[in-house]
Amino acid sequence: MNIDQVIAGIRKNNFVVVGRAGMDLFPDPPGTKTEEATDFKSDLGGSSANIAAGICKFGGSASLVTCVSDDSVGRFCLNRLDHYGVTREYVRSVGGEFRNSLALYESRVEDHQSVIYRNGAADFEMNIEDVERVAYSKFGALITAGTVFAAEPSRSATFRAFELAKEAGLPIIFDVDYRPYSWPSAEVASDVLSRAAELSDVIVGNDEEFGFMAGGIEKGLAKAKSLSEESVAIVIYKMGEKGAITYADGQEIKTGIYSVTALKPTGAGDSFMAGMMASLSSGKSLHDSILRGSACAAIVVGKPGCAPAMPNAEQLEEFLNSHPGPNN
Predict the structure, then answer these.
(1) Residue 285 gets which letter from DSSP?
(2) What are the distances in angstroms from CA 44 to CA 50, 212, 284?
(3) Residues 101 and 46: beta-carbon distance below 8 Å
(4) Closest alpha carbon to 63 in 22, 18, 126, 20
(5) CB atoms within 10 A of CB 29
(6) Is the whole model's pTM more than 0.90, yes or no?
(7) Residues 149-205: pLDDT tens digits?
(8) For residues 240 and 34, what is the distance between their CA atoms, to the nearest angstrom?
(9) Tens digit of each residue's pLDDT (9 = 90 or more) over 55-99
(10) Is 30 left (phi over 0), alpha (psi -120 to 50) or beta?
């Protein structure tokens, strides 16, 4: 799929998002260590659910495809999806001993601690029947994050979703989002994530993730460039405080970041994806959309929580109007 077809799909502003929804817990007030906390705040978590929530905050439409546990925590996630306006007709509740993902993280940068509970994860129970129920033709694009590939039956189900999305003419947007704790081994992760990347039309990853797929961080940039030359319409290679390099349509686009005083290191990637998709949907150029995604990432790291910290259009414009600009 060429870049014009990809952007045309994104501009329909109606996304099917495949992947987990979970519960986030973070100590309150900000700066509190988990081991010293007595009060916690809760909200929606999980990369895919966060991305979907971020898109909806900008006025777009997003439907989540996943499984949640048939218990109070799963119902909490369903309620928060409703709160953010994420459609959940393709979210299935599963019983037994399967449990929702739980992320416990601190709103502080120095000595930051995140503890992720993923044993017997309910979202890994998403199966081929779940993804075959989706009416792909009513959407403009499919988005997913790499964790869906970490275990079966979710892995095979997501590859099947890729097939069905392609048959329906949808571009596939893939956030590599490598989380070692979710995978049985680094070798399996490298092989599966590389397969997913080759099937995608847009890939977003950081230098470590591309390096991981390539067999060494020093090979990551070359891997990103080669994917853009072979099959992928847009490849975004993120480098933290150094900004990003994007390969698209034979061009190399370099963008910086918006410097802020961070409250926490989590949530930036999900907010970047949501902000970039929303900006492309509204007709912004690829260059400007990447910068606006970077601004959304900066906003999120400066506030507690992930989904609740993501901006809407008005908040993004307020940030851009008050900030001196990216560092390039």
Answers:
(1) -
(2) 7, 29, 28
(3) yes
(4) 18
(5) 10
(6) yes
(7) 999 999 999 999 999 999 999 999 999 999 998 999 999 999 999 999 999 999 999
(8) 26
(9) 999 999 999 999 999 999 999 999 999 999 999 999 999 999 999
(10) beta
CA atoms in the 13 A half-sphere facing the CB of 1: 24
Evaluate the omega torsion of the peptide bond into residue 29 and state whether it is cis, within 30 degrees of 0. Answer: yes
Q: Give the domains, in start order, of the chain with CATH numbers.
A: 3-317 (3.40.1190.20)
Report which residue type is found at 48: S
Tokens 């975004």 sit on residue: 236
How far, in whole angstroms, is CA 47 from its chain's centroid? 5
Could you tell me if 270 and 2 are in contact, meaning their C-beta atoms sit under 8 angstroms apart?
no
What are 303's two structure tokens?
A: 């506030």
If you search the block for the tokens 């109070």, which residue do you land on?
Answer: 72
Local structure of residue 168 (DSSP, 8 states):
T
Whether the Cβ atoms of residue 143 and residue 48 lie closer than 8 Å to each other? yes
CA-CA distances (angstroms) from residue 65 to 170, 175, 199, 305?
Answer: 16, 16, 19, 22
Per the structure block, which two tokens stand in for 135? 């009416």
Q: Is 97 helix (H, G, I), strand (E, B) or coil?
A: coil
